Structures are given as structure tokens and as C-alpha cells.
User: Fold these one by one.
Assistant:
Number 1:
Amino acid sequence: MNREQVKIALAGNPNSGKTTLFNALTGLKQKVGNYPGITVEKKLGNAKLPNEIDAKIIDLPGTYSLFPKSMDEKVAQQILCNDENVDYPDVTVVIADATNLRRSIFLLTQVIDLNMSVVLALNMVDIATKKGIIVNVDLLSKELGVQVVAINARKRKGIESLRESIINAIDKKPLKPFLFVRKLFKDLIEKANKIRGKENDYASFLALCKQELGGEVVNRCALNQLCKALDIIPERVQAKETVKRYKAIDKIIYQTVKQGKPTGKYQITKNIDDVLIHPILGYVVFLMILFLLFQSVFSWSAYPMEVIDSFFTNLSVWIANALPPGMLNDLLVNGILAGLGGIVIFVPQIAFLFAFIAFLEDTGYMARVSFITDKLLRNVGLNGRSIIPLLSGAACAVPAIMSARTISSWKERLITIMVTPLMSCSARLPVYTIIIGMIIPIEEFRGFNLQGLVLMAFYLLGFMAAIAIAFVMKFIIKSKERSYYIMEMPSYKMPDWKTVLYTIVEKVKIFLFDAGKIIIAISIVLWGLSSFAPGNKFEKIEEQWAGKADSEMHIAAEKLEVSYAGMIGKSIEPAIKPLGFDWKIGISLITSFAAREVFVGTMSTIYSVGDENIQSIQERMKNVKNQETGEAFFTPAVGISLMLFYAFAMQCMSTLAIVYRETKHWKWPVIQFFYMGALAYLSSFITYQLLS
Amino acid sequence: MQKLADLKVGTKCQMCMISDPELEQKLLEMGCTPGEKIQLIRKAPFGGPIAILVSSYILSIRKYDAEKIAIKLIKNE
């Protein structure tokens, strides 16, 4: 065998442990398309197989069958069914949950029938055995005609034998299909094969059942005519085939699996569900979990944030003193370090937030939340499944919008995509944190951290705005499509900590490097814009103050005002003055359009230009005086207005790009940009006018 | 014929027929085949979805869709 690299696809039902197996096979040698997201995007990883063979592993989105109900399942179908797809695998590993064998094997047998080289990775056999479900692995392998490997993905057991089985499976197609669709539907399949120009019975069958396998558009008409000519209703044919397939599966299950007491298995899950989806308690618990989440994001991360803050402050002082004064010193300390410190400090909060969400998803709790919220969400044009994108939106809208792919109805999916960016994402967190720190005192309110409460109020506000806008859109967007809510509620389990850890590392990396690059670049540009001015304006200011005592601060302030940055800020000041913002905030608003978290970096750069006493950004901002009144500039009115603006405005290019990619039309991101902008401007305007 | 939506929590029954072809397709592949034993195990509050136990896992569907599922009660169990 002389392959340079074998391509392996990992397929399986949702919640079967697929991502855990993927991590076990690839370790940290994985990359995620262009954007992050838990198994919604094409995930690729490299692995070494025995005999020094390199393998590229594709983690397909979880799917129950090759009849996709949603976008993400379609991705899996199109890779597996089309041998012209770039990702078409040499070997497909189907992972099955041994405690849930019947349904898992359904997908497996479909993959066998596509005439692919298959290995069945039977996950959690040990757990099944404990529950009294005893699987005869050898007999199962014989009956199915494929290699079956018992593994435990979490405990990394059986991974070596799986690697070997994959090697053995290369170029070994199944000897016979599991279900002879050719026999079932006779010349129908042969004719379809002819139309498609391919000898793949099952792929042709799927194409007949109106599945788009890629490259099918040309044949669509001919296939439809074939159905008509033979008087066949594709839906009926598909239903008949599914029933036959399950009958054959049931026969094998009966021979190879000894079922234990069916009640014992659910007792724990049932007991937990008695509380978590209780008609009243369920909602109380849900709110409590959210509350705990925001309290902890705020208070647990306070200590590491302090450490990071003092580290950067000390580093700045050290560099400022160690290097000779001048342009380079200034650029390093006030341009780059100021911007860098502004990003790194939020790593603890972002890590906690993503950890919480990964935890909720991994334990199986998210499925419960969608169960108890489906009714409410359906009334506003969403779906129970929308709760996952909405909650993930609290971390980052980009993966959240991609996770909306699991919603089968286009209208519900579109509305979910349109309102998800209203959820306060982690990029708003730095903005909220800084402003709350300035205008809300560190006090306890009925035993709770007051700052944490205000933060939670802003998250709730985002959620309520999302619900309200969804309700409006429900009446605007028209669709004839029926809406479904068919969702598995997985048994509760402790999350696989390694998988959670990988998720956190991945997200923090993306935040630090992808967002960090932009933030540093903008920090440098800003430093340049605020350190230079057209003509000889700077010299004039220096002449004016020459020889006067205490002139440093005044010179710096006036210089900033006449600099290029000041000019830009001033030019938009008239538009934002009614919101309580000055030209300095104006500069931040403009730079924030690259990404919201740039706000902090911008603020720290602007306020540190010419500042000799290096303080933390928050102290610097607190010291800013209103030039008209002489009081502190950041009054509660300004602070809340600014927070509202950031809560609602669409200031994220990545989100706009992903909305375009997911909706395949510029119309939607454009609408989103303008409705969110209008919402932001109006709410800031009203709030500031009322409060000031 | 009794409908799945009308059952009490805890009732065991057998799948008979799903009167909506689109729904039928989606439920069939999830293992809800004719004759399969299922149990209604939970109802979400305020007329929300219901949860059923089918081939040893929990599946939730809307009450509205459960109206279209005809079942046969299992006696003596």
C-alpha cells in the first residue's frame, strides 16, 4: 500500500462521543476550518496510524441518517455520498453508542450500502455491560460484515486497535450490501444508476428520494421523470426502505445483544430530569445556572485579571525606563503594550464563559433547556433548538450562528441567525467590565456582587431584545415550510474534561491570535494617528506652553485634539453628542467596527498618549474630566448609554461575514447591520437624554 | 385509535401509524417504526413538547406532532 496520506471520515449520531474520539485520535493536532464551533464546521486533524501511515481525519457533523433534516447533517451526507467530493474518505469510521445500538447501527448500515470501507467503533461497551446490555462484538462483526472495535473514547481505551482496524479496512469494500435496495425496488435502481452514470445502488436510491448529493442538479429532472413514469412516490419509497432496514437491524440486535433491565438505565437521568425539567423548578434552576454563570465570570476571573493587569503595568514601566526615551519607546509602551494588555486581561473571563457553555452542552443539559423553552421560543418564531445558538451567543456569535444549522426550518433558522448577535458576546464583556467598574460601586446588594448583577442585567437585556426582534420578524418573514422539533435528550453524563479543555484552548487561541492581530494593528495605527498632526500644529502647542509650569498634561491633551485621530473623532462628534459621547469615544466607536473588544485597546491607547504616570486603563478613564463641567466625564448616564450602544450595535465584521456565508445573501447581513444600528442609536439616545 | 398526545405520563404503548408523511419520514429514521414499543415519560409545561422513550433513548417531539401519531396500548405490563 503506497498511499501518502489516507483520508478518514468520522461519522456518528450526535452525543455518541464522536468529538471525544476525534480528540483521542488527533490530540491537539487539529484545525477548525475558518471559524470555531463545536462540530458544526468541518473539523480536520492529523493522526499517525500504524506502519508510519499519515492520516487526515475529518470529523463530520453528527447525523442520525443519510436523510438529512438540517444543514449540518447535509454536510455529512454530501461528503459520504459523493466520491467526487474532495473530502471523500478512504475509510469511514462510524462511532456507535453501545447503550443506544439500534439507532446508531441504522447510520452504519447506510454507510455500508454506499459501498464504503467501514469500521464500527463501538463506544462505551463497558458502560453498557454495567447496565446489563451485553453485546457480542464478534458476532455483530460477522453479521454486519465489517470490523467492530470496542472502545471507550473518554478513557482512551481501544484506540490502538481502532487505528489498526482502520489500516486493515483500507481498500476493503463490504462484500455485500446490508439491504439489497436493488432487489427491493428492482429496475428502478438500475435506471437511476444509468441516469447518474454511476454504479452505486444506494447513492442512486438516495438521489431518487430527492436527496441532493452534489452534482445532482443535472440529473434531477430525469430522476423525477423516472419516478413519475414508474408511478413511484419518493417519500413512500424512502419510508418503506427505512422500515425494512430497521427490521433487518432488529434481527441482528436480537441475535447479538442481550438487553438488561430497561428501567435501571434511566433511573439517574430520570431523577435529575425530575428537577431540571420540572414545570416550575426547571425554570428556576435554569435562571439560577445563568445567574451563577455571570457571577462567576465576574468574580472568579477577578484575581487572574488583577495579576495580568499588574504584570502589564510593571512591564510598561520597566520598558519605559529601560529603553532610551523617544519614538520607539513611545510606540512600544503606549502603542503596542497598551493594546496587548487590553486583550490579554480578558482571557480569564472568556475562558470561564466558554468552559461553562461547553460544560452545559457536554452534560446534556442544553437539550433539556431547549425542551422547556420550545413553547416560548416557538411563539416568537424561533425553535427550542434556537436556545443553543442564543446561549452560545453569550460567548461568540460566530460559532453560535453556525450552530443554528441544526434547525431544520429555514425561517426559524434565519430568525435565529438574525437575532443571535443581540446576545451579549464575550467581546462586549471587556467593554461592560470597564464601564461597570467605573460607574458602579463595588458593593454588595443583598449578598450579591452589585457589579455582577448589573452585568447580568445587560445579558438579560440582550436576550430580551433578541426575543422581541424575533417576534417582529416572525410576521415579516414569510415561509410555507413546516416547523419541527424532534430532538434526542441524551442521558446525563459528566463532561469529558479533556474535550472541554480543548474547546477552551481553541477559543482562547482564536481570541488571542485572530482578534489580537487586529487589535494590535489598530493600536499601532491609532498610536500613529494620535501622535502626529497635519502641518506644524504640535510645534505651535509646544511653543505656546513653553516655560510654563505643569504644562505636560495640557500639552498632551491639546496635541491629541489636533492630531489626525482627534480630527476623525471631531468629525463624527455632532452625530454622537446626543448620546453623551465625545470625540474620544467617537474614535473608539470607529475602531470598534473591526471588533468590539478593540474599544478597550483604543481607550487605553488614546488615554495613554502623552501620559507619563502609567496607571491602569480604568484609573485613567476615571480621571478624565468633562471639559465643560469639570466633573468626571464618565457619569452613569454616559456609561449606561455607551453600554447600551455596545449591547445593540452590530460592530463585528466576522459576524457579518458568517451571516452572509450562512444565508448566502447580502440582504440579511445588511438588514442586520441597520436594524441593530438603529436600535443602538435610539436606545442610547433615549437613555442619555432621560438620565442626564 | 388512540393518539400519543392523549396519553398519561408513564403509559407504555406500541407505534402504529403516523398520519403525516413528512413527520413519518423524520420519525422513522429516529427508530419510531411501526410496532416499536414506546413509553410516554414526560410532558413539558404549558403545552410544550413531550418526551418518549424509544429503543432505549429519550426523544422529544412537539405535542402538536404527537397528535398525528396513532398508538396501541400495551396490556398487562
Note: Chain A is about 60% helix and 10% strand.
Number 2:
Amino acid sequence: MVEIPEHLLLRSAEAKAKALGIPVEQVLAEMRGEAPPVAPAAPPPSAPPSDPAPTAPTATTESPAAPVAETPASPSPPAPTPPAPETTTVSVETPPTEPLTAPSSPPPPASENGERATQVTLRPVAPPEEIPEGVRPQRLLTVVKAKAIQQVKATPTDKVNTWPHLMIAEFSALMVVTAVLIVISVILQAPLLELANFNATPNPSKAPWYFLGLQELLSYYDPQIAGVIIPTITGLLGFMAIPYVDRNPSTKPSDRKFAIMLFTLFLTGSATLTLIGTLFRGPGFNFTYPWADGIWFDDLKDWVHFE
Amino acid sequence: MANGLARLKVKERVEEAADAFRRSSFWESIFRPGSPFKRGYSDSPRNRSYVIMNNVLYHLHPVKVKRHAVRLSYTLCLGGLSFFLFILLTITGIFLMFYYRPTAPAAYIDVEALSTSVAFGSLVRNLHRWGAHFMVLTVFLHMSRVFYHGAYKPPREFNWVIGVVLLLLTLLLSFTGYLLPWDQLALWAVTVGTNMAGFTPMFGNQVKFALLGGIEVTGNTLLRFYVLHVLFLPFVIVIFMAVHFWRVRKDGGISGPL
């Protein structure tokens, strides 16, 4: 049930009271549930025959006093109100709280009814008030609960404040990496071999580790294929094209087994090639075993010793 | 006793002065509204938003993020760490530039002197070198993470392309830096690398010539790689990074969980 604001309730009560010609206080009391409500709240039509209420058969009458009679329909269970339209129904069994029933001693029902009817008819109908020029009289029909004017289409997602939740996670990750880097840098000296000498070619000559997979490929294929076509065509352009080739909209791993398989193949393949090129290639770029012949990779020279 | 009282007084006075300074209009003018450094900062949702919005560094972030993004296990912070390592490499790199001359006779001597006779020189050089290896690794792992999450799917396709360019630029930055110590390792690694570039079909020799500034690795190559390493490539990568981060925000923030 919607909570109706006080001022609207008052306005509504005033309008109703004016229409029915009854005091505003009474309507208000009805609306607040202090006094019995009007006819609609009366028991269903099936009630009277089945209900052997003490005053039932004689208590009900059809009051012809049309609009005014609407007022105090009784909600009390024994009141067997017929299923007449609300404006024409008057219940006899007026509860004691009912302000309209004047001498509410326990007289016989019929007489009470008569008395009630007279009183109803006697009550002067309020004369129509003067309506000022240019003002259109209005009455409140109903109060509709307000809804947001904007239609929110996006479904709300579970979000947290960046500060502090994300910032703390990032800051800790940053601190950990800095700490690890400093420890590594204190322990491990970056390699610095002898001065560059064009006349002394080291054997083997190796590229930086991230190119060693390519250098490894070079020992299998023609340089144009291994050194240029594979890295630029498949490596660079192929990778850029991934989102335009893979049109599968799903991000679930179970829906994209083929894509994941291809990428994992690439990852393991390049990792294997890089490892072979780094650790298992010795003089003349021939195969060696790092545990037998040592590491032939100068980046690692100063800090990995297998011998 | 008197000494203790005096010390207490000094302490009180310092505190008073600090408080007065924090009340001053100068201090107030430094920080934007909602800064935790401002007097009377309180932990409210509004201020939590202001902390992000009103800070030039933090406002790279949205005010709110999806809850799962906070879980470290989702992204492992790899993209952020790549960016952080780039900043670390910039700072250490600027330090190194003070002690380094990119000429064939001087480069090796400078690097050697840096390792032996400059305060923290060895540490900073090590940080720069291992940090560079780390960055290649984190960028690569970041790419793998994005692939496995399917985070390159619409509307993020183009950001993936930018990301691949960033990976290439990272590799180039690392590779150009490789030559700068001008030792045997640098010389022959770059010789091998540029020889690979020379196998480019049709205009291989031209590519190699442009990279080396000659037909083989010389002092010209050193200068060329130096300028590429400290100026040109960082300039380009910063532009691409800016677009990359901006697109992350515009394309709906960090990707959702699987």
C-alpha cells in the first residue's frame, strides 16, 4: 500500500466531503481507518444468505436517498449488505463510533433504520460553493506512486570505490615488484663484457633472449622465412588481426577451445624455441647440454653456474 | 626536569606550527577538494570519489571499478606493472643519461665508470637492465592474459591492435638499449638482430642500412640507437600508451570475468 502524503489525503478528503456533503473530519477518519470505511469494504454478496446474523433479514434496506446515503457502510461481519452499488447502499448496523448515528441506544433494527434514513435525508446538502472566474474545479481522482522519469537501461553492476580498494592492490603490486627488482639488482650484476671488438666474433653470437626463439628458427629455415616472414606476417600482422578473425562473441573458455588451443600452441612453441636457443645452443650454434657444457648465453654469464 | 619541560614545550610548539600551517590558505590551495591531505578529510563516498577525480595521476582510473577487478588474481596487475616499469625505466634512464656519452670511444668507458665510481651507479644500471627484461615479460604476459580472457572482443578490437604495437615498441626499446654499453655482448647481439632485419625481401639491405646508419655496426649505429632509445621510441610509446589507456576506459573499463 502506498503511503499517501498528508496534504493529498486532506485534499482528497475535502473533495469527497464536498461532494457528499458531509464533514471533512468524518471522511478523514474513514480514510485513516479510524471510522468504518464506505461500502466497497462491505462483505461480499454471498455473505447474507449464508450468514445467520441476528439482525440480518430485517436489517437491510435499500435507501433511495441517493448520494448522501453512501456514508457509513458497516464493515462489521454480521452486516449483510446486499451487493448494491455503493452510493445506494446504507447499512443499518452502524457501529457505535459512527458519528452520524445520533441516539444510538439499542432500538429495534427497523426503527433505527428509519431514524437513520430520516437523519440522512434531513442533513442539508451543502450548497455548491461559488467558483471564482477562470478557475476550473478539480478533484483528486487518485494518487499514483511516482516513478523515475529516466529509464535506466544498464543493469547495475557490483562496483567498489577505486580509492581505496583498487589503489591499495595496485600500490602493493608496485611495491612488491620494486622490492624484487632492487633485490635482484643488488645481487646480480648486469653483464658488461670486454670492449666491443669487430675483429673478435664471439662463438656463439646470440641475440637478446626475446629474439632467441627467432634465432633458433633461423637455424631451421631460410632466413627470409624465419627472420622476416614469420615474425612480421604471423607475429605482428597475425596478432593484430586476431580480433578481426576471431568473430566468436563468447568469452567463455569452453566456447573458444580452438582459439585457446592455437594461442597455447604459440606460447609453448615460442617458449620452447627461446629456451632451446638460450640454454641448449653452444659454439657454432650447435646443440649442447647446459649441465654438461655450461650456459652459452652472456646475459646469464655472471650469475648462473652449472659447473 | 627543566629540560623535560622545555622539550615538551618545543614539541607542542612544533605541533602548533604544523597545525597552523595546515590551516593556512597556502596549504589549502595546494590540494583539490577531497584530498586526504586536506584538513578535515573524512572517509565518505563523496570524498572517495574526489580522491580519484581531483588528482591528475589517479584520474586515469574511474571512480568506481567492478568488484572483480580488485581481485589481484584476475589481471595480476600485469598491464599496470608494465606501465610502472616503464616509469621506473624512464627515471633510472634519466639518471644514466647524466653519465653516458653515445660515442664509440666513450660509451664503454662511461658505463664502466658508472658501475665503479658513481654513487648508486651500479644499482641504477642493474635496475634499468633487469627492469627492461621484466617489462618485456610483463607486456608479453599481459597480452596472454588479455587473450585468455577474450578481452580483445568487441568493442575492444582496436585496443588489442594498439597493444600489439606497444609490444613491438617495447621490444624495439629493449633492443636499441642493448647496444648502448658498447661491449662484445651488445655489439654482436645487435649484429645478429640487424642481420635478421637484412633478410627482408626486396629491400632488406635498405632496412639494414637505415637501422645501422651504415653497412655494419659502427659509432653511427650507436648514436642512432641512442636517439631511438632515449627520445624517439619513448615519445612514440607514450602516445600509444595514452591511447591504449584511454581506450580501456572508453571501451567499458576492465573486461568482465569469464
Note: Chain B has a mean pLDDT of 90.
